[in-house]
Amino acid sequence: MFDTVIRGGRVVDGTGQPEFVGDIGIKDGKIAAVGGKLGSSTRIINADGAIVTPGWVDVHTHYDGQATWDPYLSPSTNHGVTSVVMGNCGVGFAPVRADRRDWLISVMEGVEDIPGAVLSEGIQWSWESFPGYLDALEKRPFALDVGAQIPHAALRAFVMDERAITHDEATPQDIRRMADLVEEGIRAGALGFSTTRTLIHKYAGRKYPPGTFASQDEVVGIAKAMGRAGHGVFQMTSNHHQMESEIPWLRKVAQENGLPVAFALVQTDNTPDTWVRLLDALDDARRDGLPLYGAISGRPAGILMSWQGSTHPFIGHPLWPELASLAWPERLAQLRRPEIKARLTSMRELAPSIENDSRMLYITQSFQKMFALGDIPEYEPAPETSVAAIANSTGRSELDIVYDMLMEQEGEAMVYFPSFNYAYQNLDHLHKLLQHSNTMLSLADGGAHCHYICDVSMPTYMLTHWVRDRSRGDRLPLEYIVRRQSQDTARVYGLNDRGVLAPGMKADINVIDFDALQLKSPYMAFDLPTGGKRLKQEADGYIATMVSGQTIMENGQETGSLPGKLIRGPQHLS
């Protein structure tokens, strides 16, 4: 007698092997049998015609604060995610002394665009050390499994105090202390250590997080501590256009600790072909037996411009602060006035905050990279549909076109700006990156960038776009894409008890109506603590998502079941 039998589905087991039709039997939270026609069960899930896959393992999230108040870590659970890893990009909330809590919130707010007021209201502080943070998480109810990494910014400030914030070079004593704390945290169950080198990450105006300019002695010293503890991933968000210069010391880190090293690998507009040379570097590392991985995204890093968000071409207009201060209904009413449109679209100069910020200036004025997102979101838009192309063909001004796009859907429409990974104006390079043995699906950023990015739907997109719907280039097999976001991501992080549908494995499972699978339009929700807003995106087609054999989501709705747990260190079959 099984607890549950998933009957008659198209089993895509996560190994990359061809799908087959059969049953899956679940007993005591684990998969007990796979294939054929299984016997009786307390519960039957009819999967006739549906695909049955492992639950998705998302290794790049920022739920470090949200995990202390939201057991579902939405919207990840809307997209079949059953395990998440947080604490990426060097930012997080432990270790921390009481007088540094607000400062850590300010860093997270600046780097990951999570409202500080939301974090201040939502986080229930009860820890100082990283092991203490894990203990606090372990007491929380969760629908899915949650793992954490040690963030460099918090660690450095804990050890070096103000010297960390002013980017003083760490002394040998500082490095030993940081290394000891990392070893302690890894032994307590941290899944890794994270840092950032990118100059995009800033807080409190124009400050860079501690660790951004850390010496090789510092990062290698920390890496050695991970090696002593015996597990963990060294995760780094790179300064993308200078990533080639980072490879030598990352190789040294991988060599010193013998553990996975993962760096963010994206294509930028100013260095569009660097990804090719980075793949060569990954090939070299593999030949040398070094566990070096490029952490890649399955689509462009998508900035979503909207009247309710924080980014669009009109934010530099002198009138915009006045409009932004209005409640949404009144703001929309003003935006509908022809004289307001005329003032905004006749913009002659930009606010200094935009004019003096090269990245923001590029994002808000590069009309060749702006596209209407549409009711059915299109993340690989054709060049001829850009705002610049439409302006060129119609003789209308670019600002006039963007304005009208934003006014669609009762003023809640979004304009898509593919920031990274769209220098070629297609995703052909991602097609190659996705097939490289030393790349890893990552960068969905669940929980972060509340006001202008919503890439948390990446796991669903991998199926809809890359397997079924892509029309501007080659697709990829269903079995391969399933493996990439289940077994492959799980194995890099040592989660060897999940990611494959096989007897003895954890019963983390998705049942999906593949033909009906569809991303919905992102929208602005006001459901964070203090009524804070965030972009959300949901999907149709997930019949059921299970964690440890319990259904946590059914037809897009939370069931109330909370079988998730804190993940402490590597996981093995029992």
Automatic annotation (TrEMBL):
Q: Which Gene3D superfamilies match?
A: Metal-dependent hydrolases, Urease, subunit C, domain 1
**Superkingdom of origin organism:** Bacteria
The Amidohydrolase domain, residue ranges: 43-552
Q: Name one GO molecular function term.
A: hydrolase activity, acting on carbon-nitrogen (but not peptide) bonds, in cyclic amides
Residue ranges, annotated region (Disordered): 554-574
In this record, what's one Pfam family? Amidohydro_3
Q: Per UniProt, which keywords does this protein have?
A: Hydrolase
Q: Is Mitochondrion among this UniProt entry's keywords?
A: no
- GO CC, alphabetical: cytosol
Q: Which SUPFAM superfamilies match?
A: Composite domain of metallo-dependent hydrolases (SSF51338), Metallo-dependent hydrolases (SSF51556)
Name by which UniProt lists this protein: Amidohydrolase
Organism, scientific name:
Orrella marina
